[in-house]
Specification:
The protein has six helices and eleven strands. α5 links the parallel β4 and β5. α1 crosses α4. The longest helix is centred in the N-terminal third of the chain and has 13 residues. The chain is globular. The mean pLDDT is 93.
């Protein structure tokens, strides 16, 4: 069992964009652009990773800071940002930080975003409690906190050594993703063991790591938000803004700081 929720992400960094282009793609980016356009001030993205969301938001005019614990992820985000041909004001800042203890002044950000299930990487209850308190501290009254939960994690079928994806990465390497999934029902955790088989010419390499996610319902997250001083304002069931129900593909919560 992975001991901490952030473990595995450093090793995942070289493959993150390749995999997500074949699964989630960009279907959530437009939604977060629309939400962030209403911020009325600086925006903070938690778990920004390689800048998949941060950079499109910045290009659309959002004043954005992204934080992540993984330096290899941030290195890729900074490299992408360096290629933006735009005024400096449209280039996001990236900071290595622990989201349980954000290194920013009180009430700095009008909006905080936690896209693509990032809060589900907090595998202990106290980690989530500390993160919500930290987010509340860096937001003013009336600021918006946007959260995206992945609802199907606890329902994911268990399997071992299943080939999930094959394809060619940038630079010509052939990649095969072999994945195993199991559930810890008692702790509501789902570890994903991923093996990337990389073939480049006659050379072969195997990259192995584990990512662990925690199952959280909308009701559970709403209760924790209220305890941290937020008021749930809107709950949506997709990136087009449709109403939420328990069968929705995604669970989006927009909450206001009280």
């Amino acid at each position: 069992m992975t001991r901490e929720g952030w473990e595995g992400w450093d090793a995942y960094a070289p493959f993150y964009d390749w995999e997500n282009a074949r699964t989630l793609g960009r279907r959530d980016v437009g939604f977060w652009q629309r939400v962030a356009a209403r911020a009325g001030g600086q925006v903070l993205e938690l778990g920004c990773g390689t800048g998949r969301i941060s950079i499109p938001l910045a290009r659309s005019g959002v004043d954005l800071v992204g934080v992540d614990r993984s330096e290899p992820m941030l290195a890729r985000a900074r490299a992408r940002a360096a290629r933006i041909r735009a005024p400096r004001s449209l280039i996001p800042s990236f900071v290595r930080a622990d989201i349980r203890s954000l290194p920013f002044t009180r009430a700095r950000f009008r909006m905080v975003l936690a896209p693509y299930g990032v809060l589900q990487s907090l595998i202990r209850e106290r980690d989530l409690t500390d993160t919500l308190a930290s987010v509340a501290r860096v937001m003013p009254r009336g600021g918006t906190f946007g959260i995206d939960l992945v609802p199907d994690v606890p329902n994911w079928r268990e399997y071992r050594n299943k080939v999930q994806l094959r394809g060619t990465a940038r630079g010509g390497a052939r990649l095969t993703l072999v994945e195993s999934v199991r559930h810890d029902r008692r702790r509501r955790l789902t570890p994903f063991e991923q093996r990337y088989l990389e073939r480049r010419g006659g050379r072969r390499a195997t990259h192995r790591f584990e990512l662990t996610f925690r199952a959280l319902t909308v009701a559970q997250m709403s209760t924790r938000l209220e305890r941290a001083g937020f008021r749930v304002d809107t709950v949506l069931g997709d990136y087009r803004g449709r109403p939420w129900d328990a069968r929705a593909d995604v669970w989006i919560i927009l909450a206001k700081k009280g």
